[in-house]
Design goal:
This protein is an alpha+beta fold. The strands form 8 sheets. A 16-stranded antiparallel β-sheet has the order 20-19-24-25-28-17-16-15-14-13-18-27-26-21-22-23, with helices on one face. β15 and β16 form a beta hairpin. α14 runs antiparallel to α15 and α19 runs parallel beside α21.
Length: 900
């Protein structure tokens, strides 16, 4: 059901008759069909002990479900559960393409679920939202959260069981004037805008936007979302900030979220809990009653350890009760995680007194609690040790108000140093910069290695507790926050919906297919495991992988220019998400999720002169001077968005809608040696079809699906139709592009085949565009490109009578050949596609068995696992080609001899 050609795109005469769009008449009949149950599973293959509330996406085949059709979620017994749903994408005919579904928090979650037509049940404790002049009030059962609409308190207060358990909840930060021993300036967040994005009964979302203020300065823009789920006593927090400082002057030395907790109980009934490793806890009181020279009695000791109020003092031996004030009261506690592999806990009686070392360990789960028998607050950071240096502080536990701070960047760690890592003396001239590119593969240009404008998103959970939770409860809370359970529609059902381009389910029906499938699995597992083996952790690094391996050092080239951090080069994000779609693997889902969080934030500029562009791979995520839409690419975010309905990623993709405009003052090809630059009129830029136009088109496609706006559909059509009108279409590689109309210009009468043009999501996005929009000229242009990119010399010269130039990445480009084979039905092209894939040319190659080897030697920092000759370019493109070739031309594989 492609879009009808009979409707014209009004206004543009060049488009008349070239494309159509609109509703398909079959939809009314189709939506009357019975809709089968959609199976949903936990990505870890088992129901969690505790769910903090769930949100997941469900795809629908075209024309099946009305966008506002009633849906419910059931357990295996078919009984409707409390749920809430909304449409997050539609097909061109107006039917639902993706819906999002929310479930309450709870401990008794079904192991299997299904989405079916029907009315959901009502939650036991629904979420209600009330908006007043100065606050937004969210209530769930006996928990009440008062969220500010202005001022410094993001949350003004929180009640649980009718008692105030938290006062202000604020954002705090500090900046030093030098990386070591500089003057420290404190900042606090201030709200500029508050928006209720969603109301209950199962899920509510409030978005706060603002800046940090201090010493007469406003900077560090933030966006904080609070998520409330039915049947819960917590808020999920998604915290995002942009670094907009001067890397030479602003050394961020602390970034955190702080809760103020009223304290009135006797010191012996004030409790501090810190999560250590593997679900264990550091359990202490402000004034301990255990280990004393005189025993207060087992009931007193047991009550304090359990977090309950101790029995009346009259029952305690006077030899102890008369001397309680002689026991030191410990007011301040700190859990610091300076590295991925070690934390330390220390405490002191008050400021100005010595810190006492309490204990240490490996990887803390990142939860802290402070409170009393009548209530308190717990706060936990996801990726606590992975994004070191992190810290949890309790201060003033022996005072009337304690504070609990989750530091995303520890104030006790060295300040962030985001200056350039390299000595650039003598690198002012382009020739010298290009010489640097020739030897280290990283391009430098003064001022273009600026970190200002990059961002980071972190996730936390905040609990308002009516009493000090048990150790078992706090442990479950910490583990759930650290590794949140996630629901996902089964791969079979996602595939049946016909969404997200050319992919298929695993197929091991022949020995060769089984061999390819084994490598698909092994390769993704290898990269996921490399994160821990190689320590790819840290505040800015977590979620990224390295680009290329150094076999001599047995080390990834972390310090060699453009061979270091990958920054989405050649689409590892897409490869991992397609692996998730077909496998449902929880391990790879979380690996891809961390990558999406990183690459969409740290590798992309969110404000300033490079806004909307990303940075090419380098030693620092922002160090290379090539700023491109191929990195900020919405194609790398949209699968995660549709699987989870994540609002932050939705914001990031929406921010890319006008990123093509940035290229008017950021010329990507400005330093290409020998390139001839023809001056272009104002508002016209040179725009490559794959690395640039397709990258931005992914954002337009997603926005069209999310909103139904014709503005973005028409912009897609303008680009597609104008490429199709060029003499050589896609084979021209690029053309002058009018930013206002969205059309390519000029004759397009030369051929320019770049090996990069199709490997940044162009294959996958084009498959979706051609499924949704009937633009005949564009279809012809794309199929010609797919046919001829990997063509042999004789065929090429017979067709074009132009010199045949060498190609690169033949293995990865085999999926272009497979695509045109599928579209045209030409069996010889299917065979050719598999021959190109099996050649391994400019790629990874298919191994005979598992190629991973373990090596150990005195010169290594530890025993290491290696995949010989691996590079992320080759791995990502091999993975995508393997997945897509199996989906497009599976039967043609039988006629091809695989490598021995």
């Amino acid at each position: 059901m492609r879009i009808s050609r009979r409707e014209a795109l009004g206004g543009a005469s060049l488009l008349a008759g070239a494309v159509g769009f609109g509703g398909a008449p079959a939809f009314a009949a189709q939506r009357a069909r019975s809709i089968p149950a959609t199976p949903v599973r936990w990505i870890d293959d088992a129901a969690p002990a505790l769910s903090p509330g769930q949100t997941f996406g469900v795809p629908w085949p075209r024309g099946v479900l009305a966008a506002k059709g009633p849906l419910s979620v059931t357990g295996a017994d078919g009984v409707a559960l409390p749920s809430q749903h909304w449409t997050i994408a539609t097909w061109p005919d107006g039917s639902a393409k993706w819906t999002a579904h929310a479930l309450p928090a709870g401990t008794d979650m079904p192991a299997t679920l299904a989405v079916i037509p029907g009315r959901p049940a009502a939650p036991q404790e629904p979420v209600t939202v009330r908006e007043a002049a100065d606050r937004i009030e969210i209530a769930v059962g006996s928990s009440i959260w008062r969220i500010g609409k202005s001022g410094q308190a993001l949350i003004q207060s929180a009640d649980s069981d009718g008692r105030r358990v938290m006062d202000a909840f604020e954002l705090v930060a500090s900046v030093d004037s030098a990386p070591e021993k500089g003057t420290r300036t404190e900042f606090i967040g201030r709200i500029d805008k508050a928006t209720v994005e969603q109301t209950g009964p199962v899920r509510a979302v409030v978005k706060l936007e603002g800046m940090h203020e201090g010493a007469g300065r406003r900077w560090l823009p933030f966006v904080v979302r609070f998520y409330a789920y039915a049947d819960s006593r917590h808020l999920r927090i998604v915290h995002s900030f942009i670094f907009d400082g001067d890397a030479k002057k602003d050394f961020l030395s602390g970034l955190g979220l702080r809760a103020t907790v009223p304290m009135a109980a006797p010191f012996h009934d004030r409790h501090v809990r810190l999560a250590t490793a593997d679900g264990h806890l550091f359990v202490e009181a402000v004034r301990p009653l255990t280990g004393l020279r005189r025993d207060p009695g087992k009931p007193f000791r047991d009550a304090q350890i359990a977090g309950r109020a101790i029995p009346p003092l009259e029952g305690m031996p006077k030899s102890v009760s008369s001397l309680l004030d002689r026991i030191p009261s410990w007011s301040d506690f700190t859990l610091e995680q300076p590295t991925a592999d070690g934390f330390a806990i220390r405490k002191r009686t008050k400021a100005g007194q010595a810190w006492i070392d309490a204990t240490s360990g490996t990887r803390s789960l990142g939860l802290g609690y402070v409170g009393q028998p009548t209530g308190g607050v717990a706060l936990a950071t996801r990726y606590f040790w992975e994004r070191h240096p992190a810290q949890i502080d309790v201060r003033g536990a022996a005072e009337d108000k304690a504070s609990l701070t989750a530091w995303l960047w520890s104030p006790d760690a060295p300040a962030m140093d985001m200056r350039s890592y390299r000595d650039v003396d003598g690198m002012e001239e382009y020739d010298a910069q290009n010489e640097g590119l020739a030897i280290t593969y990283e391009d430098y240009e003064p001022g273009w290695d600026d970190a200002s404008g990059i961002a980071r998103t972190n996730e936390l959970t905040l609990w308002a507790c009516p009493a000090t939770p048990t150790a078992e409860a706090l442990s479950a809370m910490a583990k759930t926050n650290a590794v949140p359970p996630q629901l996902m529609v089964t791969p079979e059902r996602i595939h049946e919906a016909g969404v997200l381009g050319p992919w298929g389910l695993p197929d091991r029906s022949t020995p060769m297919k089984a061999r390819i499938e084994a490598q698909i699995t092994n390769l993704a597992d290898f990269y996921a495991d490399e994160v821990d083996r190689r320590g790819w952790y840290g505040f800015w690094h977590h979620g990224d992988v390295m680009h290329t391996y150094d076999r001599d050092r047995h080390q990834w080239r972390y310090d060699i220019g453009g061979f270091a951090w990958d920054n989405s080069e050649l689409s590892p994000d897409l490869w991992l998400w397609y692996t998730v779609l077909r496998s449902g693997s929880g391990k790879i889902f979380r690996f891809a999720e961390a990558m999406t969080r990183h690459t969409g934030e740290v590798d992309v500029y969110h404000l300033g002169r490079f806004a909307g562009l990303g940075t090419r791979h380098g030693v620092q995520h922002w160090s290379d001077s090539s700023k491109q839409p191929r990195v900020s690419n919405a194609a790398y975010r949209r699968i995660f968005y549709y699987l989870t309905a994540d609002e932050r990623v939705g914001d990031l993709m929406r921010a890319l809608l006008t990123s093509d405009q940035t290229l008017e003052h950021v010329e990507i090809g400005r330093k290409v040696p020998g390139a001839k630059r023809t001056p272009l009129p104002k508002g016209v830029i040179d725009f490559s079809f794959g690395t640039m136009w397709c990258s931005v088109a992914a954002a337009w496609l997603t926005e069209w699906e999310r909103t139904g706006s014709k503005l973005w559909r028409d912009r897609l059509v303008a680009g597609m139709d104008s490429i199709g009108r060029l003499k050589y279409g896609w084979l021209a590689g690029s053309a002058p592009y009018d930013l206002k109309s969205g059309r390519f210009m000029g004759p397009g009468d030369t051929i320019s085949l770049s090996h990069l043009n199709a490997v940044f999501g162009a294959v996958e996005i084009n498959a979706e565009l051609l499924d949704l929009l009937d633009v005949p000229r564009y279809r012809t242009a794309w199929l010609d490109y797919c046919r001829w990119f990997n063509a042999d010399k004789a065929s090429w010269e017979a067709k074009f009578q132009m010199p045949f130039k060498s190609r690169n990445l033949k293995e990865g480009h085999s999926r272009l050949t497979a695509y045109v084979a599928k579209e045209t039905g030409e069996a010889t092209l299917g065979t050719r596609a598999w021959a190109e894939f099996m050649s391994g040319e400019a790629g990874l190659g298919l191994s005979d068995g598992d190629p991973r080897v373990t090596i150990d030697a005195p010169g290594l920092i530890r025993p290491l696992v290696e995949w010989p000759d691996v590079s992320t370019n080759a791995a990502a493109q091999w993975g995508l080609a393997a997945i897509e070739n199996l989906a497009l031309v599976p039967d043609a594989l039988a006629s091809v001899q695989g490598p021995k």
